[in-house]
Design a protein that fits this description.
Helix 2 packs across helix 3 (about 40-50). Helix content is about 30%, strand content about 20%. Strand 2 and strand 3 form a beta hairpin. The chain is built from 5 helices and 4 strands. It is α+β, with helices and mostly antiparallel strands. The chain folds into 2 domains: about 10-50, Arc Repressor Mutant, subunit A (Orthogonal Bundle); about 65-140, Alpha-Beta Plaits (2-Layer Sandwich), CATH 3.30.70. The chain starts with 10 loop residues before the first helix and ends in a 16-residue tail after the last strand. It has helices at about 10-20, 30-35, 40-50, 85-90, 120-125, and strands at about 70-80, 95-100, 110-115, 130-140.
Length: about 150
């Protein structure tokens, strides 16, 4: 993990970040109204947050179900001895894996997978079985969607 400097956030910056996380297309005018600032002031705050590395980018939230992927699963992956790099390469080449983190513990990777149906799971897992042990959990619902943690004081 790279080192970043800690940034102090006032109430207006927190509001701006929360609004952008909820909808990164929120207009400057709307952000300004919510924060009680002018649009140029909000634009400057956003620029400062980008330069400080607080805001890393802007993304679209995509409905996998609308694209025909009716299931999502979490796959825990424990590479067999000496197979770590091969597993990492294999994971990168699987387009069904939409997110993957390297983690501590027995499981070196936690991958989020999208599937059209449960039958697609074998197509994802079978190539991994010669390289790793896996454990899969099908996601029923997002109990807590992506959100910001508590902001540091001041």
């Amino acid at each position: 993990m790279t080192s970043v400097r800690k940034v102090s956030l006032d109430a207006a910056n927190r509001l701006i970040l929360d609004a952008l996380m909820a909808d990164s297309r929120t207009s400057l005018r709307t952000l300004a109204e919510q924060a009680g600032l002018s649009a140029p002031a909000v634009r400057e705050r956003i620029r400062q947050l980008e330069e400080a590395g607080v805001i890393l980018g802007y993304t679209a939230q995509v409905s996998w179900a609308a694209l025909g992927y009716g299931l999502e699963a979490i796959v825990r992956i424990e590479p067999l001895p000496g197979r770590l790099r091969e597993v990492e390469r294999a994971l990168r080449e699987m387009p069904q894996i939409v997110q993957c983190d390297a983690v501590t513990g027995d499981d070196c990777f936690i991958a989020r997978v999208v599937l059209r149906d449960v039958g697609d799971l074998d197509g994802v897992l079978d190539p991994l079985h010669v390289l790793a042990r896996t454990s899969t959990a099908v996601i029923k619902k997002a109990t807590i969607p992506l959100r910001a943690p508590p902001y540091p004081d001041g």
